[in-house]
Specification:
Layout: E1 2-7, H1 24-36, E2 40-45, H2 49-58, E3 64-70, H3 78-86, E4 91-96, H4 102-105, E5 113-119, H5 121-139
Helix pairs in contact: 1-5, 2-3
């Protein structure tokens, strides 16, 4: 079973060359953390809003248990919200700390968002993964409600 990290373009109408690759050390840390609880993590860097929406729609249970979602420049895109409403998968949303608009933080009608994590890339990705792993193991009955994944 897997978790997928979907990373949208960092610039509006971004091309793939504009997308920052995830730091190798961060990726290794995420892989190790997921492996500790018997999970895998896949990372997809997406070049456009359309590719991000298609990737959200393509994720299916039981192969994928949760999504870590870094919308990048697509944070204000209502189509992303609609794609998430159609998805039954739990997800953790990742946002840079400089985005503080309350309307962006709480889209209505989405019940499968586990958490919203704000901060700098490496910290937020590790925290988002920890939250998703905790949710998955609790849902599977593998962890007491008061325990936490480290």
């Amino acid at each position: 079973m897997s978790i997928v990290l979907l990373r949208g373009p960092k610039r509006p109408n971004g091309m793939y060359r504009d997308q920052c690759e995830i730091d190798r050390l961060l990726l290794v840390q995420l892989i190790i953390r997921a492996n500790r609880v018997g999970r895998r993590i896949a990372v997809r860097n997406l070049a456009s809003d359309k590719a991000l929406i298609a990737a959200i729609q393509a994720q299916q249970a039981p192969q994928i248990e949760a999504i870590l979602l870094d919308t990048g420049a697509c944070v204000r895109d209502r189509r992303i919200v609609q794609a998430l409403q159609g998805s039954r998968l739990p997800y953790v949303e990742i946002r840079p700390s400089h985005l503080t608009d309350a309307r962006l933080c709480e889209p209505e009608g989405i019940e499968n968002r586990i958490a919203l994590v704000r901060g700098v890339q490496s910290q937020t990705y590790v925290l988002a993964l920890s939250i998703a792993l905790e949710h998955i193991t609790r849902e599977a009955g593998l962890m007491p409600r008061d325990a936490m994944v480290s």
